[in-house]
Protein 1
Amino acid sequence: ADGDQALARALETRYALVVTGVETRGLRGLDLATSLRATPPYQKAAIIILSSDDNPVDHQRATDLGVTAYILRGSLSQQLLVENARTVFEGMSG
């Protein structure tokens, strides 16, 4: 429902993939990614950030955090999201 709830759930249950938007209620998506990266199970976890605009500051911050993918919602298709997730999981098994 919001970034705060996402963080609480992620700390309760380890997820292989986290997908969040930049603009979320409560804890923003990039702040969620920062909090997750500070937690040992998520230091190398797959995180995909979705954004409605190509803000270079947000994109750079996501890059600095080592997110797996930063996808613009305008270019988002179910296929693109699935392809990114598949790449993540194939990398985990290799």
Protein 2
Amino acid sequence: MLVTERTIEQVKEVRNALLQLHKILLEYQRHVWERTGGPIENSYQLLNLVLHDPYFAWLHQLSELVVQMDEWQDAEEATEDAAAALLEQARTLVAPAETGDEFHQKYFEAMQQSPDVVLAHSEVVKSVRTGER
């Protein structure tokens, strides 16, 4: 099935909202880290922590979803079904929960402590709902 322009735009909108959420969560996690682990001196040190330190590992699910959306957009034969699966994955991922996997627990905690995370979360939820039928 051909992909509609509406679907392409929604995936782009959700991807951009997820990317903004990731940026805010990364900044939130950086502040949490610095309270206990000391200051992060530069962007190289932060990148190294994000890629290799278990403290930041929970954010990988979010960055991986953004990459999957990029790959979908670049695919020669992108489908509506694949887009629907990505959007459902986004809906599921941004459902914070006190119980559940590490991402959902940490996400819930971040939402309790950061108004910026709450605002970014609401943008993701709004963008995901835009295309609900």
Protein 3
Amino acid sequence: MNKILLLSIILTLSISLFAQDESTLVKIGDNAPEFTYDAGNGVRKSLSDLKGKVVFINFFATWCPPCRKELPQLQKEIFDVYKDNEDFVLLIFGREQNWKTIDEFKEDNNFTMPFYPDLNRKIFSKFATQSIPRNFIIDKEGKIAYSAIGYTEEEFEKLKGALAKELK
């Protein structure tokens, strides 16, 4: 009986990991897909404008419980630490969220990080097909250096280490 249970757990985890890989459209070492985004006040920016910088991209939604756990850590342990680093840019995209929802969420949670809407998943769909939160670190050459799905304290520590490595 214990063998059957163990095999079931292993099979479930294997399927879960495989599904996560299948939902990620970009892999480490790939060129990051080009995109433009609404930076507010009628300004449009593109990822290519940030070449030569380390770009940290987070996809979230205001209704997502793991996102709500991760964002305060992102504020405290990444944005507050690196916000004055000229080589660092943080882009947080609200998947299927508009400016009004994002601005209210940002204010309600006392976040000072930059948030942007991705109302129709136009940006998200270049990186993945499902699952948030998602994080991507893009190196100074514009390549995917790190990616993560979901939020755990252990994964967040790995994410911080990968970012520190890219900013050396």
Protein 4
Amino acid sequence: MIPRTKVNYAFADLMRAVWVREQPQYHNRLTTQIKRHLGAGEVILTPSGRGSLYFILQSLPQIRTVVVPAYTCKAVVEAIALADKSVVYAATSLNTFNMEADDLPDTLDRSTAILATHQYGIPCGMQAINRRAKETGALVIEDVAAALGTEIDGQPAGIWGDVSFFSFDSTKLINVPMKGGFIYTRNKTLARSIRQNCEAHTEPMPLSLKLKNLLKGAVFLALENHRLYALFHRLYFSGQNRFTNDQPGLNPNLTEFYRYRFMAWQASIASEQFARLPAIIQQRRTYYRFLHDTLQQYGVPNLPPADEHSQWACIRFPLRISEGKLPFYERAYHAGLDVAFSFTYIATPADTFPEAHQLAHEVVNLPFYTKLTRHEAAETCRITASVLTNSNQSDEPEKHRNHDPQPC
């Protein structure tokens, strides 16, 4: 069974983190690494990606409305609601999974923030969105939760908006138990306000929660064993007739992903991965290209866009299944391939934005992570094509038979 995800840290990282005390050197090292990647600016470490958005909006009293892509994580809508702002949805492309400048409403003004999301690490049109924002006075919040390492015209995603936020969730490029994130801006006044807000409304993580999160991290690592993963899946998913942890509805409470500060032990785990960031980014680009080209050779339809200039660091490989994702998921699972889902339950009105709900109904995420092996990548393509064509053929395309992606 090929797992749907694997995390980027190791058991040794977790063991070291047990003994890390709350000292500034860990945060300082991580923020220095972030600035090395993004350039000079202000960095605020936060409890999570959704927490980052919440604290940004809490620090912008002039903003009353936030424009978001219709196809987006409901945690985004949750954070906006908790910050007491209104949501306006904009159409999302079936091909790029993104909202573009032409999709923005005509009601933009100085009380509006545009949430420019790079869905799955695929960049949206920041130049055009920034032009619209400049014309109307709107503020641009760049959602880079899924796009750390992605570049736009040779420049890193995250430097294009007035303020941006990133995530260290287990599905992202950098993984921390159990979440975490950061905010980046070149606006020192805004950064000061966000930092004050974050410090005033968060508290140190208790030791019991630290140990619980480290234990969860160890479980994630144990499940990298294919046999243990298959047993876990039978007990937790198929045995309970479920396919995802996602639930409908928004949480009206400030959970641990808003309440607890990003701690030194978490910074130590993230920093170890940041030291390998160029190699991680290159591996993602290599495997994205391999999956895309190999599936194209198999004739698989509805592929995500190609990274033609090798500038993306995607955290998912989204594939649209026209018959609907659940039948494919069941057949793929029985063939030895587990797939993940994004945004099964979205908050967007179905009658107004049918394309967003079409994506929620169709999109599966093939195994795509830093620890993906050459064999797993090739098997993922073979099983996917076999399931979609209802064929038992296992031959690989001649072109790729001896040209697996090389390890980084």
